[in-house]
Amino acid sequence: MAELLHFELVSPERLLFSGDVENVTIPGSEGEMTVFVRHAPLIATLKAGLLVIRKEGGAEDRVFVRGGFAEVNPQGLTVLAEEAVPLAEFDRAAFEQALKDAQEDVNDATDPEKKRKAQEHLDNLNQLESVLQRVA
Predict the structure, then answer these.
(1) How confident is residue 61, by pLDDT bands cut at 50, 70 and 90?
(2) CB neighbours (10 Å) of residue 15?
(3) Which pLDDT score is estimated for 1?
């Protein structure tokens, strides 16, 4: 039996995954990398992208992540993401409506601070859209 990597994925809302896996590919800000058991210790920042969890037997879970960091240590890999959306839970119709609403919020905002926050939200949704187009 092959050795497995202990992996945890945490977002501000919840623990999304905790278990032993074959490997995990993360969207590091310096480039995509795959972490296996016994990987050298490191800390990496994340960019918006797709995190791929490869479970024992080859099944994969794919999760959109934005921001945060990954830490590899002797106990395994921990990813703390500012935002994490499992693609299995993704609702395309709700996303399209959220994108439309966010654009309207930007267009309607008159206060500079409200406009900045609305634009930031729209930018985050556009990052997710970009990742989804690459994996579709």
Answers:
(1) very high
(2) 9
(3) 59
Domain boundaries, given as residue ranges, for the chain: 5-88, 91-135
Indicate the burial class of 131 (C-beta count within 10 angstroms; 0-12, 13-18, 19 or more): buried
By C-alpha distance, which of 4, 2, 5, 3 is closest to 79?
Answer: 5
Burial 50-81 (b: 16+ CB within 10 A, else e): bbbbbbeeeeebbbbbbbbbbebeeebbbbbb
Classify domain 5-88 at the CATH topology level.
ATP Synthase; domain 1 (2.60.15)
The string of pLDDT tens digits covering residues 82-121 is 989 898 877 778 888 888 998 999 899 899 998 898 888 8
Contact 98, 106 (CB under 8 A): no
Distance CA(129)–CA(87), nearest Å, equals 12
Residues found in the chain: 136
Q: Distance between CA 67 and CA 83 in Å, rounded?
A: 7
